[in-house]
Amino acid sequence: MNFGEPRYASEQALIEKALIFAYRNTTYRVLICGESIDIRIGCRQFRLDELLCGKSWAFISACNPGSIRSSDNPERHRALLEKLDGMGLEQYPGTGIPDRGDWLPEESVLVAGISELEAIRIGREFGQNAIVCGEGGKAARLVMVS
Predict the structure, then answer these.
(1) Total structural domains in the chain?
(2) Alpha helices for 26-101 (secondary structure H)
(3) In this structure, are residues 106 and 64 in contact, taking their beta carbons and an 8 Å threshold?
(4) How far apart are CA 67 and CA 130, in angstroms?
(5) What confidence tens digit (pLDDT) does each residue in 41-70 have?
(6) Structural domain includes residue 50
């Protein structure tokens, strides 16, 4: 899904629509307390709410900045984990798994107890276009950060 640089404003709009479609058609899988939980945009995550005691959360990746495939994804992911560790944030391993087979799963992390604004800041720092946010009792939301 490497879209490269658009040449025209209309190309930019098509790229953004395609990216949003791809993000919305991805399973965001987290491993928490020995359970694998699948998060989908627009859906409530009852079990996740229960396990996190209703805390707000964000699903963040450092891989493939700007949705352009990157060979340094393992290093980027380690840097994200180090940053979150340094902030003392509760985190769980995750993977973004696209519905379509033309993009590889992305190593990610679910961060519990983080504010949406802080999650956006971290997403931007790592070159992401979007993150997924949620909180107890509400559906998961796609949040554009770029």
Answers:
(1) 1
(2) 46-51, 73-86
(3) yes
(4) 10
(5) 999 999 999 999 999 999 999 999 999 999
(6) yes
Q: Are 108 and 28 in contact (CB under 8 A)?
A: yes
Helices marked H in the chain — which ranges?
A: 9-24, 46-51, 73-86, 116-125
Q: φ and ψ at 25, to 5 degrees?
A: -110, 50
Residue ranges making up the domain that contains 41: 9-144
Distance of CA 134 to the CA centre of its chain: 11
Q: Show Cβ contacts of residue 63 under 8 Å, excluding neighbours closer than 6 positions.
A: 70, 73, 76, 77, 106, 107, 108
Fill in the amino acid letter for 4: G
Residue 132 lies in a domain: yes
113 in any annotated domain: yes
Per-residue pLDDT tens over the stretch 87-116? 999 999 999 999 987 788 999 999 999 999
Residues facing 58 on adjacent strands: 111, 133
**Residue 15's pLDDT is what?**
62
Q: What share of the chain is helix, strand, coil (3-state, %, to 5)?
A: 35, 30, 35
